[in-house]
Amino acid sequence: GSNVLRMSSGVQIKTKSSAQKSKTCSPESQPKPSAKLNPKTIDPFRAYSQPSSTFAATYARGGIPCRLVHGSVKHKLQWECPPETVPFDPLLLTLAEGLRETKHPYTFVSKEGFKQLLLVEGAAEKVIPLLPRLVPVLKAALAHADDEVFGRGLDALVQLSAVVGPSLNDHLKLLLTNLLKRLMDKKYREEVTVALQKLEHCGGRVS
């Protein structure tokens, strides 16, 4: 009898409610919970989103050592190991890539992860050698058509500037065209102006 049951539960996976039931009733025929929660296996648009972005693929493989924890009021990030022990290369670059994501939970994990990595002690000396690779990734977020992606890129840039100070100056000219373009858009004028003031404050003169 149990074989028949198991097969039927496999068929029922197509319908939502019975899928939930069958998942809880016959754990032995189901994938491990980690696989079940893996964003790749539950993405209904998987066929359309190939090739998957670097960030989504790394997240699916478990290569991002932090997860989103749903809170009743606000979400938070939980690290599998203390962020100060994590190698900035490649994680900070991967999180910066993730700023261009538009799907949950990638959007939250990349934004919050990037911010928290920059807060660890000694972040500056870990980040400065990565700037030549990090700035083009942030530029791609700032050049993105999606307003939220641009906003995340802008926040990340300001956070980065606060950490590395004048070291960012040589790289800023790469980004200024994208910032000035949004400065023309009144929806963003204030936000970009504030960001430019902060960049100038942290790095000295922005010519």
Shape: globular
Strand order, largest beta sheet:
1-2
Radius of gyration: 21 Å
What is the C-level CATH assignment? Mainly Alpha
* Fraction of residues in H or I helices: 55-70%
Quote the CATH topology.
Answer: Leucine-rich Repeat Variant
Detail the poorly predicted runs. Answer: 7-34, 41-51
Distance between the termini: 76 Å
CATH architectural label: Alpha Horseshoe
Biggest beta sheet attributes = 2 strands, antiparallel
Structural class computed from helices and strand pairing? mainly alpha
Query: For the record, what is the CATH homologous superfamily label?
Result: Leucine-rich Repeat Variant
H/E series, N to C? HHHHEEHHHHHHH
The number of distinct β-strands equals 2
> Treating each run of at least 4 consecutive H or I residues as one helix, how many helices?
11
| Count of structural domains | 1
Would you tell me the overall average pLDDT?
A: 81
Strand content: under 5%
InterPro entries: ARM-like, ARM-type_fold, Parkin_co-regulated_protein
Protein name: PACRL protein
Pfam families: ParcG
Region (Disordered): 1-42
